[in-house]
Write a structure and sequence with these properties.
The chain has about 220 residues and is α/β, with parallel strands linked by helices. Helix content is about 50%, strand content about 10%. It is built from 9 helices and 5 strands. It has a 5-stranded parallel β-sheet, with helices on both faces. The longest helix has 18 residues. The two termini are about 20 Å apart. The structure holds cytidine-5'-diphosphate (CDP).
Amino acid sequence: MAKRKASGSAARRALVIAVDGPAASGKGTIARGLAAHFGLPHMDTGLLYRAVALNLWRWGGDPSSEFEALRACDVLAIDPGDEELRSEPVSRIASSISAYPSVRTALLDRQRQFAGQPGGAVLDGRDIGTVIAPDAGAKLFVTASPEVRAQRRVRELLERGMPAHYEDVLLDIRARDERDSHRAVAPLLQAADAILLDTSDLTADEAIAEAIRLVEQRLTAC
Ligand code: CDP
């Protein structure tokens, strides 16, 4: 697969790729694959919300208090290898505190700066194509059925040595979809100009290959 050239004509307009979608849809895998293919840096914006949630959880803060959640935004460094970031309690808290407007505002600059870096970037999350980088050169909205997503999340948790039960995970995914899609600020929403990619019947490699094809097609059309 050809990598994007670093110099040359039109080109060399910074390429920003926005990848949005619900929990365990495959957006992270796809975003990493796109970043590797196009030689771009990648930000998993969910990690920011998870880091705030973990911070709050560790000092025993109350997720139902927007004020306490905002205080927890004071996260200087995030260790992506910290297993607790992916634990179910932290996932649940991340989903609820991400509905607070002040929390979203506090995390905005970090994401916009990443998206605005000179060489371009790939970001994945819930509101990249709609709020963080509305002018992104290519936008994907990645989805899969709740059942497939629950199976993937169970596999992921078990591989990390964490407890996981399919029925509980499915319920949690549905609850999170509901919360993420219906919050007042920056709800999970397919941008009007985003391309829909359903990964229900695709392996990870197939999903990445399809995402690359769709992005290249979009770039050629521009
Ligand atoms: O990996 P998964 O899709 O389960 O979650 P994530 O992308 O790590 O995001 C964790 C939570 O943060 C989600 O449930 C969202 O509510 C929230 N989030 C958000 O509101 N906006 C983003 N750009 C990214 C995540």
